[in-house]
Amino acid sequence: MATEHKTFTLFTFLTVLLVGLTSVMARPSYDNEAMKGAYFPSWAQNFTPSSIKTELFTHIYYAFLTPNNITFKFNIEHSEAIQLVNFTSTLREKNPSVKILFSVGGAAEGPVLFSRMASSPSSRMSFIFSSIEVARKFRFDGIDLDWEFPQTPGDMVNLAHLLHEWRLEVQKEAESTSRPPLLLSAAVYYSADTFLSGPERAYPSVSVSKNLDWINVMNYDYYGAWNTTATGAQAALFDPESNLSTSYGLGSWIRAGVPRSKLIMGLPLYGRTWQLKDPMSHGIGAPAIDVGPGPDRTGVLTFAEVVEFNRERKAKRVYDMATVSVYSVTGDLWVGYDDPKTVTVKIGYARNLGLRGYFFWAVNGDYKWKISKTASKLWSL
Ligand SMILES: *[C@@H]1O[C@H](CO)[C@@H](O)[C@H](O)[C@H]1NC(C)=O
Ligand SMILES: *[C@@H]1O[C@H](CO)[C@@H](O)[C@H](O)[C@H]1NC(C)=O
Ligand SMILES: *[C@@H]1O[C@H](CO)[C@@H](O)[C@H](O)[C@H]1NC(C)=O
Ligand SMILES: *[C@@H]1O[C@H](CO)[C@@H](O)[C@H](O)[C@H]1NC(C)=O
After folding, report:
1. Residues 6+ apart with CB under 8 A from 139
2. What is the residue range of the signal peptide feature (predicted)?
3. CATH of the domain at 257
4. Which ligand is nearest to the CA of 85?
5. Cβ proximity of 62 and 103 under 8 Å
């Protein structure tokens, strides 16, 4: 009896295992596919769509398009239309399987236009119809909302309506044209419900989960030129002393109920610089007096520029394993950034959490594709 029972259990176990494996294997590869995203800043100098190493990415975002601030429709000028056609046709030619989206808004646009657009059903509809029209006309696979950031609880309610109505229209359009539905995503704040400024508020996580295909969580910009009193790890994975970290931010989205299969971890291909108060005191959080190198006092260097900075100035590199970040220091100049080593740890962390993938801001910041290659290889292991 005991033996029979054991045999039965083993048989049941094997069957369950086999059925499980079969269903995993039978799932469309689309479902399992890791997401390896990257934003393309359309204003970048000396960097064209054809220079993107498309085999390293699954999703590429054109940054940015912005609707008119009165009609909330997109008015694409002739020169931009040419750029969009070039973007989608160049990328498709290089890699037919890469998904191409356009991203709406961005940090420079700020929150006001979106807040007004989302505040009434008619302006939401103008925006939604126009966005679908632009996507189809220029052969994009989807649309990415980059509202940085909803400022009030009211904005969050309106965002929920916008996403719901957008999804409905995208479904209707797909049915009436018999085409695959456009993809819908959004770039969101590092945390679902902890904001460093403004009133307390939380993203509408039910609407986000239901209506978006995924969200790109902006796990960077924790510290920067807006505060020159101290250095900071702008994309720290961990911070034992505060909630300003990628692990906290991703955890907040998971606690908010957004499925892990819809969460994409953000990785910066840039660093942030400061001028130290005292060259001898150069840790993370060391006193500073100004921003460091970078154009227009932004205190921003791309990873490629950081590599050059390190080489030219023979900067000392320091790994900080507590935060999973690296910084370089030379004299009173300091830059904190991510490199292949920190990205390796972050990719391992995101995979263990069961997230869908990662994305980079921005694709032109890498040095000889080193970080992009490291991330892509690790996620596919
Ligand atoms: C809309 O944009 C125009 C052009 O950039 C600007 O002059 C105007 O102030 C904006 N209007 C509103 C209501 O934001
Ligand atoms: C895109 O533009 C580039 C640079 O202007 C040009 O060399 C290339 O032929 C264009 N490609 C397509 C597919 O339009
Ligand atoms: C600036 O950064 C320091 C160190 O992170 C922090 O203690 C201080 O509160 C910040 N100041 C402002 C105005 O945010
Ligand atoms: C971090 O967030 C948690 C809630 O998620 C809160 O209980 C805690 O006080 C916060 N810690 C700090 C240092 O702000």
Report:
1. 85, 88, 89, 92, 100
2. 1-26
3. 3.20.20.80
4. 2
5. yes
Whole-angstrom distance, CA of residue 248 vs CA of residue 236: 10
Ligand nearest to the CA of 240: 4
* Average pLDDT over every residue of 192-206: 97
Please name the residue whose Cα sits nearest to atom 14 of ligand 3. 227
Cα–Cα distance for residue pair 381/308, rounded to 1 Å:
30
Cα separation of 174 and 377, whole Å? 34
Asked, for residue 290, whether it belongs to a domain, the answer is: no
Verify whether ligand 3 is closer than 6 Å to residue 224 (CB atom).
Answer: no
In the structure encoding, which two tokens stand for residue 286, read together? Answer: 């060391």
Cα 160 to ligand 4 centre (Å): 26
Residue pair 143/131 in contact (Cβ under 8 Å)? The answer is yes
Q: How far is CA 59 from the centre of its chain?
A: 11
Give tens-digit pLDDT for 19-60.
Answer: 334 333 433 334 457 999 999 999 999 999 999 999 999 999
CB 227 less than 6 A from any atom of ligand 3: yes
Would residue 288 count as lying in a domain? Answer: no
DSSP state string for 289-321: EEE-SSGGG--EEEHHHHHHHHHHHTPEEEEET
- The total number of structural domains in the chain stands at 1
Strands of the chain, DSSP E: 35-41, 59-65, 99-105, 142-146, 183-188, 214-217, 263-268, 270-276, 288-291, 300-302, 316-320, 325-330, 333-337, 357-361
Parent domain of 170: 3-266+340-380
105 φ, ψ to 5°?
A: 105, -110
User: Rounded to the nearest whole angstrom, what is the distance from the C-alpha of residue 320 to the centroid of ligand 3?
Assistant: 20
Say whether 101 sits in a helix, a strand or coil. Answer: strand
> Does 371 map to a domain?
yes
Please answer whether residues 317 and 309 qualify as being in contact, where contact means their C-beta atoms are separated by less than 8 angstroms.
no
| pLDDT tens, residue by residue, 274-285 | 999 999 999 999
Q: What is the mean pLDDT of the chain?
A: 93
Residue 332 lies in a domain: no
DSSP state letters, 186-219: EEE-SSSS--SSSS-----HHHHHHH-SEEEE--
Radius of gyration, CA atoms only, the chain: 22
80 tagged catalytic: no
